[in-house]
Write a structure and sequence with these properties.
By secondary structure, the protein is of the alpha/beta class. Helix content is 37%, strand content 18%. The strands form two sheets. A seven-stranded mixed beta sheet has the order 1-3-2-4-6-7-5. It has a six-stranded parallel beta sheet with strand order 10-9-8-11-12-13, with helices on both faces. Bound molecules: NADP nicotinamide-adenine-dinucleotide phosphate.
Length: 315
């Protein structure tokens, strides 16, 4: 593969044939975001494309918020097959989609676009990506778990909560810095927790304040802790949970994967709990996206290997 530039821009899309002349395979897939230069999706998706012998490559395109409509239009005109959408465009892109898959519609956010027959199809592969990542890492199904979700008010938190509810998890406790968002989501999801599953002395769905005592009580009735906040990416970030709150039986899934061992994962380890970072979610959302584009399974080992190598190179 002839390697493309690290990052393209929206003005580049206006002169695409000239800019990408001779580039083999031709760029026909992209990740768009602001910023986008650190995205690990290109090496992962290019490994899948190469392995499947598909004559296309996947590139990064830096798209600022005011450039989004123009970018989508250009991708359509240029015959792109699809695009992954990352921060901050996952919600903003929804009005440009002609057909929204039900899960994406429910979440209100799209991270995968498919361009087909002059139409734009929108999907959310973050939610099923999380489900697959948990199967992969812990050999568990969401439906069997009592889950505490930190960061329930954010985009990834909302996607995770909706996937947990759709999979009929045993119990879901929503926590968010801005508590009103978690409370609103708990009200929205409550009807899905009214079946006959039993949870013992506690509510099956609840929003609880981000306070040590409240969390300590809830965590007695929890199997899986998910961090869907931004906390953990920077060394100076406050801790997500203090170590003594984590119990040895807890599974801890941190959506953050940079650094690979976040403070939360370090705390889990100290307490004898199993914890993993969000790299597997990135992998499985990428696998789901590939399936939306090509209606076939990519080579998971190739993608996993490329992703691990790319992540290691970044740390
Ligand atoms: P987002 O929509 O901006 O949401 C951020 C969330 O973090 C909100 O719940 C926010 O609470 C909370 N938060 C931010 N700063 C906080 C602080 N100082 N203290 C407590 N809570 C804080 O972002 P997102 O798209 O959901 O992404 C969230 C995280 O998930 C990011 O780290 C992202 O990299 C990760 N992610 C990983 C994958 C993967 O494949 N592994 C996929 C998607 C996202 P408020 O509501 O109070 O603002």
């Amino acid at each position: 593969m002839q390697s493309s530039r690290d990052v393209y821009t929206v003005p580049d899309l206006d002169q695409w044939p000239a800019i990408t002349v001779g580039l083999q395979p031709p760029p026909r897939l992209a990740v768009i975001g602001d910023p986008v230069e650190h995205s690990l999706s290109p090496p992962m998706q290019n490994a899948a494309l190469q392995s499947a012998r598909i004559d296309a490559q996947y590139v990064r395109v830096h798209v600022k918020p005011d450039e989004l409509p123009q970018a989508i239009q250009r991708f359509k005109e240029l015959g792109f097959l699809g695009v992954n959408v990352t921060i901050p465009h996952k919600t903003a892109v929804v009005p440009f989609v002609d057909e929204l898959e039900p899960m994406a519609k429910r979440i209100g956010a799209v991270n995968t676009l498919l361009f087909e027959d002059r139409r734009v199809f929108g999907f959310n592969s973050d939610a099923p990506g999380l489900r697959q990542a948990l199967r992969d890492e812990f050999s568990v199904d969401l439906g069997d778990l009592r889950i505490l979700l930190l960061g329930a008010g954010g985009g990834a938190g909302r996607a995770a909560a909706i996937q947990c509810a759709s999979d009929h998890c045993e119990r879901l406790v929503l926590v968010n810095r801005t508590p009103e968002k978690a409370e609103a989501l708990a009200r929205e999801l409550a009807p899905e927790f009214q079946d006959s599953k039993l949870s013992g002395p506690v509510d099956r769905i609840a929003a609880v304040p981000w306070e040590e005592n409240a969390l300590a009580e809830e965590l007695n009735y929890i199997d899986l802790i998910i961090n869907a906040t931004n906390l953990g990416m920077k060394r100076t970030d406050p801790e997500v949970l203090s170590a003594p709150l984590i119990q040895p039986h807890h599974l801890v899934y941190d959506m953050v994967y940079r650094p690979p061992k976040t403070r939360l994962l370090q705390a889990a380890e100290e307490q004898g709990a199993r914890g993993v970072n969000g790299l597997s979610m990135l992998l499985w959302q990428g696998i789901e996206s590939f399936e939306y584009w090509f209606a076939r399974r990519p080579s998971v080992p190739s993608m996993r290997k490329a992703l691990r190598e790319a992540a290691a190179a970044f740390t």
